[in-house]
Amino acid sequence: MSETAEATATADNKNADEHGAQTGPVFSVRNLWKVFGPKADRVPGDPGVTGLSQAELREKTGCTAAVRDVSFDVHKGEVFVVMGLSGSGKSTLVRCLTRLIEPTAGTLEFNGEDVISMGKDALRRLRRHRASMVFQNFGLLPHRSVLDNVAYGLEIQGVAKAERRERAAEMVAKVGLEGLGDRRPGQLSGGQQQRVGLARALAVDPEVLLFDEPFSALDPLIRRDMQEEVIRLHREEGRTMVFITHDLSEALRLGDRIALMRDGEVVQLGTPEEIVANPADDYVRDFVRDVPREQVISVRRAMRKAEATEQETGAALAPDTLVADAIETVARSGESCRVVENGRTIGVVDDARLLSVVAGLDTAQDDGDGEPKEVAAV
Q1: What is the pLDDT, as a whole number, of residue 22?
Q2: Among 132, 310, 351, 378, which residue's beta carbon has the most beta carbons within 10 A?
Q3: Closest Cα partner for 306 from 321, 294, 316?
């Protein structure tokens, strides 16, 4: 894990502890490696090769490090997104979490339990009851109805037929397919089939949902509908989710935090706002270059100190209000707005500060003179 990513992860975990957002991580991953090739187990412990690039490592050892020294926590109730280009290691990483792919080295815990040391029975319970996977390939059984596909996981668990079909019917309705329970997968659209896959994962009532690029094969409009479905389900249930994607807009839309991977390593970990506002390096900067900053950055980052005469004047905005929404409020009122937290004015945003965010100027580095500082364009 890079120093930048490690520092970000440490600071983020500290903040979560301070704000009481968790009592402990759902997944805790430390120094995780997955190496493919001859004598792969020797690579993580060999300081002579761990720092090599992918090409150099292949040339010297014949091995490929799909996941390299990755560390992070997934907190209860959050949507944790892992994103990167093809070959970055993100899909390998999510499969390591339930040992669908065996890690080469490192530690991996699920709610405090050591996943690496789990026997076959415990691992089977983890996959069947506690963590459900939604794949890009729907994997539906073509000869079974929608209801029977959704109930399949419960059938594997040995749940009685009447009970599992009742549960399946509830999940079919939850994902918006009510009335389609008797249809076969071939009679459904791609988006509807993916909803069946989502309902099947939900039916076993898992603690965590793992999504491996589930919407990448869907048409843009259907994909957006499925993203809305995930957002709605998370809002209603607060279920912990780990979501894999190569699409930055999808990551920004869904994620509470994002781990951005390159060549098997996490190069930056943070909230969407942190990644867009403060990219860790040129690789991340290229990723976020075309992101509309005002749709990701909040007024907490854009605000300046309030003058004495501004403490009680102007419309009040919450600190997490997006700059895009604040621009509309300032435009309508024709005056600056107060940023209010717990009944106290903590800053002010005006048209100059808001436009600075849009223009790519770093308003977070205000040294007290009220003037934004220019940063590298993103």
Answers
A1: 45
A2: 132
A3: 316
Q: Please, what is the average pLDDT of the chain?
A: 87
Which ranges constitute the DSSP H helices of the chain?
Answer: 3-18, 54-61, 90-96, 120-125, 146-150, 152-157, 161-174, 190-203, 220-237, 248-254, 272-277, 282-288, 299-302, 323-333, 351-359
Say if residue 364's pLDDT is above 70: no
Please give the DSSP secondary-structure letter assigned to residue 278. Answer: S
Distance of CA 253 to the CA centre of its chain: 9
Q: What's the pLDDT score for residue 334?
A: 87
Residue 201, sorted as left (phi over 0), alpha (psi -120 to 50) or beta, turns out to be alpha
Question: What does residue 42 show for φ and ψ, rounded to 5 degrees?
Answer: -85, -20
For residue 364, the 8-state DSSP code is G
Number of alpha carbons in the 13 Å side-chain half-sphere of residue 57: 25
User: Which contiguous run of DSSP H or E holds residue 240?
Assistant: strand 240-245
Q: pLDDT tens across 209-233, in order?
A: 999 988 887 888 888 888 998 998 8
Structure tokens at 88: 């970055």
- By CB atoms closer than 10 A (0-12, 13-18, 19+), residue 255 is buried
Task: Select from 227, 226, 287, 245 the least CA-distant residue to 91.
Answer: 245
Class of the 294-374 domain? Answer: alpha beta
**Dist CA 115 CA 123 (whole Å):** 8
pLDDT above 80 for 2: no
Please tell me the predicted confidence (pLDDT) of residue 371: 44
So where are the chain's domains?
3-111+207-291, 294-374
Among the listed ranges 12-21, 59-68, 157-166, 247-256, which one has the minimum average pLDDT value? Answer: 12-21
Give the span between the Cα atoms of 273 and 115, in whole angstroms: 32
Per DSSP, the three-state class of 136 is: coil
